[in-house]
User: Fold these one by one.
Assistant:
Number 1:
Amino acid sequence: MANQKIVASKAEAVDTLAQQLADSKSYFLCEYVGLTVKQLEELRHELRKENCLLKVATNNTIKRATSKNGFEQMADIEGPSCLIISNNESVDGPKIAATFAKKNKQLVIKDGVVDGQYCTQKEIMAVSALPSKQGLIAMLAGGLYQPLQQLTLGLHMIANPETNQE
């Protein structure tokens, strides 16, 4: 009877994690051997600012949860691993983790899932270099604004030729 309760609680943990992963924008594995509790708390604090979370679970739980979501490629997990889950933007978690990993070499970023697509370690690092959605919108707005500004200046110069002679 106790064995059934343990199995049921583990199955519930897998289901809960699988649902969290399915609801997220991106998630990826990290190896954290050698990080102190203080460093992990610092990383968690930075992640919370962007509505991301660091989830420590057993390798078996992570394997089962990722397989349940259709990502059997992530089943090759060894050593102490954690998941970094991004809930708002796909780039938030990878960006924070990559910045943290530059200062703390013990944090090793592994493979993961971004916007429903499996990504290797290299691809996760490439995603970390992308600007956020807000940054992309600002770049687009600037790109759209510049031709209008030049057109306005040109029309002004045509309409007022006497102010252009110096």
Note: Strands lie at 26-31, 52-56, 81-86, 108-114, 117-119.
Number 2:
Amino acid sequence: MPFNIFDTYYLAGMVQEIVPAQSFFLDRYFPTNTATDIFDSNKVLVEYRDRDRAMAPFVVRRAGDIPIARGGYEIHEIEPTYIAPSRMLTMDDLQRRGFGEALIVGSTPQQRAQALQVQDLEDLENRIRRREEWMAAQTMINNGLTFEALIDNGEAGEPYDIYFYDTTSEEGNPALYTVETKWDNGGDFRTDIEAMVNDLLDRGLPATDLIVGTDVAAMIQDDEKLLTILDNRRAEYGRLAPDVRYPGVAWIGNLNFGGTDLDIYAVRETVVENGVTTRLFPSTSAMVTAPNCGHMMYGRIDQMEDDQQIHSYAMKRVPKFVADKKTDSRSLRLASRPLAAPYCKAPWIYAPDCVG
């Protein structure tokens, strides 16, 4: 039985075969559980709570038992943002020599169309994944996410704001740490990072990773006091041995802060938006956290198919093929509705402007 290679489910199968690019924030801190994080609804259910640190009470035997209240948690219904890049294919594209194609023995327009379809899906997938990586990083930096959705390539539409703390509280952002004295101007970075670690540990949260920008990484590696401590053969405080572990992210080493070992990751990756290149993680900042502190969730995609009916898909990526016979062109779209959320309240501590 013949099948339609432009069918949504067939295209979705092609997308699933694409090997995703390795991403530091997305892979290490915001994995997706396909059984619980992909929702068949327009909204996703976000739950996060404080870690329970209370102990069980001693009870006189004749008293029986002591009721224990359930720990409080917050639950919110949030509508994920919509991401839908597309790629147009025209007759002119099919007449041109393809990238890497032989000059003399070329492909037919039909063969080029199939090859470009696969290439377009890969390009769209990589762009969405880079946006998800940005979302994960911004969620950790701001303990929330804020941006403006576009109506077209140049016109801003609705603002999108979500925070995982009470913005009206006088206490402010619980995941924010302020450095009193910059580390390259007389401050003690070991004391500040130890305080950040203790903040997480006191709330029952793990602290295993120290994420730093490039300027902070350079300061740590050039710190004479630290180098002297590491050179002491009678005490083991860690080691510095830079090694690239993720694209644009280098593992600098492992240092001990008040008894807690932290793996140090220096982020130098950049992203481009509207022609402007920015760093994925600020060069002068630092953050303490642990792997799997959050998860990337996905809402349902609704779209009209060739049968003129609305179809719904509960998937991470949903492709759509649209052909325009009048202009001899076709458009290939890849849609996604992701949302990055923490498992617990403030499972990271972020310190901006540590140096400089």
Note: The chain has a mean pLDDT of 85.
Number 3:
Amino acid sequence: MTGMDMPQLTDRTALQRNRARAQPDALFLHEAVADELQERLIEVNRTFHSIAIVTGFPDFWAEKYPNATIVPDDETLNLQGGGHDLILHTLCLHWANDPVGQLVQSRHALKPDGLLLCTFFGGQTLHELRSCLAEAEVAVTGGLSPRIAPMGEIRDLGGLLQRAGFALPVADSIPLTASYANAFHLMHDLRKMGENNALNDRSKKPTLRNVLTEAASIYADNFINDDNRVDATFEIIALTGWAPSDTQPKALRPGSAKTRLANALNTNETSLNGSKD
């Protein structure tokens, strides 16, 4: 399937407009991801000399990594083939029309044994708001329109790295909870984050005030916390993969072991028919 044939999930013009309205004081999720990535890089214990960052928020990430090459998360990434030993793909894959294509391009831009760390929003993100908006819209209008981008579940996302040709793939999730005075404050914060609705099939008409009021009421009834505020879940998915290299550890061929497990455990080995060897 070519880029022209691929379904366009995201309205890129609307996405860029939303991001242009984002305010630095609302980018706390990027701060959390930056801290998480730094911890993971410390654990890797390797010095990287040619870093590229794929992001929709270049000013924020350029400040964190002043020597990195910063590229936008366009459908075609402006990355040099084999030019980097580390790529950070930061909180933007959930808006990609072709997420596997983004990962494939990232792999081609890595040197052998180069590292990709990719973070984006997972399926539990804003599940409270999504359910409340859906219930409210059905109750008020009798219909339902796309409002929040569909986000993958962790059980399905690990295979993306393998499909993209990465070695040693790992997928894990980082749950974060934020609290707000009410659902209106949450929706206002999403706008300040640049993460409001940019779906291609979204309704172009303003949401009815009655729908928002009903959603806020449902939210308060179901997701209030002990501080009399409402909780909002953000699930960050982290994908870790390495560009293939001959120097990487590889699994042994089945049957090639030279030591019996029973000997290592100092126990008797029992065959399937119940006899002992």
Note: The longest helix spans residues 28-44.
